[in-house]
Amino acid sequence: MDDSRHALIIANDDYQEGGLQTLTSPAADAEALAEVLGDPRIGGFDVQVVRNQPSYEIRRRIEDFFEERRTTDMLLLHFSCHGLKNEAGELYFAATDTLPKRLRATGVASAFVEECMADTVARTRVLFLDCCFGGAFSPGTRPRAAGDVHVLENFADDKLGGEGRGWAVIAASDSMQYAFEGARLADGGEPKPSVFTSALVKGLTTGEADQDEDGKVSLSELYEYVYNRVIRANKNQTPRCKSDYRGDLYLARSERRSIVPAELPERLRAALASEEMYTRMGAVTELSNWMRHTDLSIAAGARQALEHVARNDIHAVAEQAGAALAAVRIAPEPAALRFAPVPRHAAPPKQHVRLLGPPVARSCTPRPSDDRLHAVQSGDGLDVTIDTATPGPLSGDIVLKGCVGEARIHVDAEVRERPVVPEPPTKTPQELEEERRRQEERRRQEEARRQEERRRAEEQRRRAEEERRAEEQRRRAEEERRAEAEHRAEAERRAEEQRSHATTPPPGLKAYRAPALGAAALGTAIASLALGIKAVVEALRLQQAGETWANIQIHLAQESTRDLVVCLVLALVSLILVAVTRYDLRSSTGLYDERRKAAARLLTWSAKVLALPVLVLAVLGIIAVMIAANIS
Fold first, then answer.
1. How many beta carbons lie within 10 A of that of residue 95, not counting itself?
2. Staple partner for 110: which of 154, 257, 346, 575, CB 3.0–4.6 Å?
């Protein structure tokens, strides 16, 4: 079940050639089989459906299906259509464009299918043929085709054999029988799958084809199940199988897995074999708890041991074991279902039945006593539905079987025929002619109404187009006006610049006035700084030379005071020149270019940085000299 799995379902029910009768089952066959094969819980196939296609398209899809595969792939091909033969007895499958007298050109030859199956590298190939090949048929059923052809003889062992794991071909009927579609749906109900495909789908969906309940449905199990179902449904149809494979070929999974009881631990076996009654009763108590274990094999092993104790131990111990067994049983809730009357071919009604108790009690397989009853595992229980295709009362049971016993769910339902709608009374030729005229008049009125609606729609479209064009023209005119305004503004700006350049005098000596004033300010600041330094240095020199305080005071009163006053005046002059230079820069913007402005600003900034500290220090120095000169 771990291989890559692919399925191709070919269903043809609509034929262009009048000699081939339209079928009702292939569409339902394709839908039902694709659903169950594609279900990852059941088939896990990658399903393709080809319905009502011409022969050349079907041949292409078949060849594509078998090409470019891996050896580990499992390939399943299903045909649901007419089966035809030519004068040589060769088998063909009918497509929508098949002409019975031109089978080689318009049919799908079984030999072509056989060659594709033989050429693929896939190890496993399975072919289902739900077609008909001649013979008598019962009333109330519709045959798929006529004529005698040995179906399985068209697939030779030597061609399909080889080194692969194997192949199988299962046909819905043999060479002298029909593949039945079931009752003809004269009342307009929904089509049902054919008898053969219905058995396939039911066996896989319910898991009933898993006869050994190992959780897997093998090809041999599926064929045996389908064979029995088809024979029971119609004695005139006998499925046939031809295969060549080794080992088991598993097609699907199922939930009908039997529970294998686990072996008890040695200590429990020793306790059950003890001669002490209370030791055995303690083991029974522990086993009763084990029956509620989530591991079903452990629970089944515990139940098997309790059944042995209940049969063979003394009364007291056996009674305790019997009570423990009775406490764990299949308990459906409710145990009886009653469906309200439902019309024929209506959607199947559904009711849910809960399964109570521990996991081992809920692990059971539903087996309906009537084919119209269906029970599917869902959540904590079962979903029970009834088939509404067959009218009449329905009273049956769903038998639930598991390792803890069995239980029954009784079901009562009724499928009623839909009320027959009376046919309208037959009309006279005059009434028919009058009705025809009325219909023609209504048709003309409807056509005139449609034309008027089209005319109005066209008029609205035309108006909308004109409005769009007008809006586009307005938008373009606005953009042109905006561009023209921007162009005029740019021209005016350029003219203004040209006039400005024209009125600006050429650079002369005035263009250097601000830089010259800045240089003068900086020079004055440097001179004031030099005088200040000279005064300080002279005072320090007299002190170091050992002059008397009287001489130092005389010097400070005369020389130092003069130098500091000059220093103060020069600093003030420098700051005045800085102010004049900056005023000139602001008032004569058109006189200086950026380079001269930058030079003037740098010079004034340097002069200010030097003059301000010198000014402050000169004032402080004058004050200090005056104080020192007056000290006695």
1. 25
2. 154
pTM across the whole model: 0.48
Is the distance from CB of 33 to CB of 84 less than 8 angstroms?
no
Q: Tokens representing 359?
A: 């996991």
Asked if 291 and 358 touch (Cβ cutoff 8 Å), the reply is: yes
Q: What is the C-alpha to C-alpha distance for residues 69 and 172, in angstroms, rounded to an integer?
A: 27
Cα 484–chain centre separation: 57
Q: What is the mean pLDDT of each run of 10 residues along the chain (632 residues)?
A: 82 79 80 92 93 94 92 92 82 89 90 90 90 42 44 58 68 60 42 79 86 81 88 81 82 78 89 91 92 89 91 92 91 92 90 91 83 85 90 90 86 85 71 86 91 91 91 91 90 77 57 84 87 77 62 64 81 88 82 83 88 85 74 57
| Helical pair 195-206 and 25-38, crossing angle rounded to 10 deg | 20
Rounded-to-integer distance, Cα 82 and Cα 11, Å: 10
Amino acid at 14: D
- In the 3-class helix/strand/coil scheme, how is 275-342 assigned residue by residue? CCHHHHHHHHHHHHHHCCCCCHHHHHHHHHHHHHHHHHCCHHHHHHHHHHHHHCCCEEECCEEECCCE
**Distance of alpha carbon 302 from alpha carbon 359, whole angstroms:** 13
- Distant-in-sequence, close-in-space partners of 385: CB < 8 Å, separation ≥ 6: 348, 349, 350, 373, 374, 376
What pLDDT is attached to residue 351?
A: 93
Burial label, 57 (beta-carbon count in 10 A; 0-12, 13-18, 19+)? middle
With both helix axes pointing from N to C terminus, report the angle between 315-327 and 277-290 in degrees, rounded to the nearest 10. 10
Phi/psi region, residue 392 (left: phi>0; alpha: psi -120 to 50; beta: rest), is left
| Cβ neighbours for 503, distance < 8 A, ≥ 6 positions apart | none
Picking from 345, 339, 334, the residue whose alpha carbon sits closest to that of residue 412 is: 339
CA 252, distance to chain mean position in Å, is 26
Q: Check residue 557 and give its pLDDT.
A: 61
Distance CA 223, CA 245 (A): 14
Closest-CA residue to 578 (of 496, 492, 520)? 520
Q: Identify the CA nearest to 28 among candidates 49, 8, 46, 58.
A: 49
Distance from C-alpha of 336 to C-alpha of 323, rounded to nearest angstrom: 26
**Distance between CA atoms of 198 and 209, rounded to whole angstroms?**
13
Q: In this structure, are residues 402 and 327 in contact, taking their beta carbons and an 8 Å threshold? A: no
Q: What is the pLDDT of residue 614?
A: 84
Token reading at 242: 């031809």
Chain center to CA of 102: 46
